[in-house]
Amino acid sequence: MIPFELCSPETGNPLRADRPHSLADAETGARWPVIDGIPYLRINREALVERVLAHLDAGEPDEALAALLADQDDWWTGPPADAGDIRQLIRTRAEASLREAVQRLGWGRVGDYFLHRWSDPTFLAGLALLEAHWNEPACVFEFACGIGHYLRELGRRGCKVAGADVVFAKLWVARHWVVGPKAQLVCFDAGSPHWPVPGAPVDLVLCNDAFYFLEDKAALLESLRQTAGDEGWLALSHIHNRECPGFSAGSAVSADDIAELFPDALVYDDAELTRALVEARAPGPREPADLRACEAFSVVAGPGMRPAPRSVVDGLTLPPAGTALRLNPLYQPEQTGGYAIRWPSERYEAEYAARATYPLHAPGPERMVFEAGAPPAETERVRRREYVDLPERW
After folding, report:
1. Same domain, 134 and 86
2. Residue 177 and residue 170: Cα distance in Å, rounded?
3. CA–CA distance, 319 with 60 (Å, rounded to integer)
4. 3-state SS record for the chain
């Protein structure tokens, strides 16, 4: 694990374990709950923190967990999760699938994105950005890591990984279904008075499909740069463009904003990164002023980044040799044989169909093992995400 020194998001004082299930402010004594190794450090949740700690202190960990799993971010517009479904998931977490977890947590369309993100063009753009500038980082921190899609890819390639998100349930799902016990995970708000992971010893800081959500981007970026330190680098992908109508929530940015926030960056059209992955070539960075019509920006910045992108031909964009792959679950059997794409929702189709890298029809089979030196046609099917590397309990 990465040796993070956590601090209170309210005071900036160091946090130390006072009990197996809580951390305490070293000076004030204020306490914060920890469940499954995930500290909950959200501000403006005093009543929830008090209730969770009371359950933990009373030896009621499942009641404490149920309370945290119902907590959402401030942008959530869907109905609250059903309390009975949450309790059922807690009871069956050792056997439940990722699909069942997402359904019982009531994530709706967000759940669709999480379940199928392994082949989303925006996820592939992020992989391409990392591979094009890869410099063998030993320790990686992902802000707004969700359920850990990128952490899984990086951890399986030898990196020590840590992630943060504002929604505890996402980190809990990451722990049990996606990244396992070795990743260091922490729940906190980006707008906390004090950044809870100051001076973390990491080589790479990444953030995908989340930077545009936050209002005070300059302050967040300063925190991310501090986390990367004097020698690390930043990779931020799929930053929605305010000048291009789309599906963005939060507070999107303009090309001028990108130029001001990232004067030291290489800037890409997100879609160019996805094309580079499919075409097994180096992506081409552009000046921000030339990207006013793109849907989303991606950037790399900092002293530790590669000075120029390399070809996206292996590494993160293809699974390790010997990986057991499954036919992309977006494919469903056809009566006449073979498989056809069935979109999980109209919104998902509207957002991704035009940029999907996989064909609308596939012959199968349902499983394959990806081997080194595989025939070009087989490698192409994997590169396009006709076949995907899913978690064991997907």
Report:
1. no
2. 10
3. 41
4. CCCCCCECCCCCCEEEEEECCEEEECCCCCEEEEECCEEECCCCCHHHHHHHHHHHHCCCHHHHHHHHHCCCCCCCCCCCCCHHHHHHHHHHCCCCCHHHHHHHCCCHHHHHHHHHHHHCHHHHHHHHHHHHCCCCCCEEEEECCCCCHHHHHHHCCCCEEEEEECCHHHHHHHHHHHCCCCCEEEECCCCCCCCCCCCCCCCEEEEECCHHHCCCHHHHHHHHHHHHCCCCEEEEEEEEECCCCCCCCCCCECHHHHHHHCCCCEEEEHHHHHHHHHHCCCCCCECHHHHCCCCEEEEEECCCCCCCCCCCCCHHHCCCCCEEEEECCCEEECCCCCEEECCCCHHHHHHHHHHCCCCCEECCCCEEEECCCCCHHHHHHHHCCCEECCCCCC
- The answer to whether the beta carbons of residues 180 and 192 sit under 8 Å apart is no
- pLDDT grade, residue 247 (50/70/90)? low
Average pLDDT of the chain, as a whole number: 94
pLDDT at 308 over 60: yes
Whether 211 and 341 map to the same domain: the answer is: no
Asked if residue 272 and residue 129 are part of one domain, the reply reads yes
Domain span at residue 250 reads: 120-144+190-315
**Is-above-0.85 flag for pTM?**
yes
Q: Is residue 263 predicted with pLDDT exceeding 70?
A: yes
- If one counts the domains in the chain, the total is 3
